[in-house]
Fold these 2 entries.
Entry 1:
Amino acid sequence: MRIRAAIAVPAVSAAAAALLLTAPPSQAAEAHAKTARCAEKVLTLRAKAASDDPSVVRVSVTNRGTRACAVDRVPTVTFGDLDGAALPVPEGGSGTYRLAAGRTAYAAVRTIADPADPEARRVDAITVAASASQGGRSFTAAQLGTGSEVLVWEPVTTWWQPTAAAADRALGLN
């Protein structure tokens, strides 16, 4: 598989470059036009534990700006003073998610698969950021609704989704 991917990527890149080079300048410029990154100050982040499963945290980001902007495809979710962040489900490379003005995107985070796991770590807060380059917002366990601590072991997060239901489905919830 790796050999095919190594051959396919340059071929696709070459085809895209040829298309841009043969297109009129106005079309080439449109093809390269990208949505600007969201400034952290126009974003509102929210997080709350699922009422039926405290190992699931539902997060959202709202663009309060007047224009569409882009956030990372996957939220950055970190846990207290532990190293690392929740891994994306499904796995995938970097990319962006376009967030229209006034719109909200949703993700679901599973902090631990088995709350009885003896290797579980305990933290008093999580931090959620719409993009890895941003500081994000911290939420205490009490604010999340998980009591005095959040149990963590091999956490995963979905990509941003257009609805909370889609985020739940992406995490395998009903």
Note: The two ends are 33 Å apart (CA to CA).
Entry 2:
Amino acid sequence: MSAISSVWDNGHRIGAQLLNIVTGPLFRFGQKIGYTTTLHVKWVELYTIGRKTGLRRKSIMPSVLHTKDRFVLVPTYGGHTKSPGWVHNITAKPEIEVAMDGKIIPMRGHIADESEREEIWGKLVVRSLGIYAVLQAITTRKVQLIILERI
């Protein structure tokens, strides 16, 4: 584990909590005024079922590559060495819901295989203005891509 990864691991929980505190109200305000897209980013409210608890879990995620029926999510977790919990929830139960533009959309998620990742990764780096490349460099794990498709 690199020194940078260790620092990120130690502070990731506080950062994730702060991010949720900030993005939650911004997302809800954006929905109220009908604005959930910033630059190339489409913000989605993701509902998964906890793999251990069976409880409904909510995460607010950006997608820089998306169409009407498909979203690509990048679980960087701020460069943490582990994937966020919602990735494990989607792996265990791929049928999820996404709240977007005032609608609940049933979707199915999966982890992109290596060929899908190769095809998509470069586009994500460009669309994120290099942020995803930096976050990939910080962590020792290969950041997965989660593909959500409308059911």
Note: Residues 31 and 114 are 34 Å apart (CA to CA).
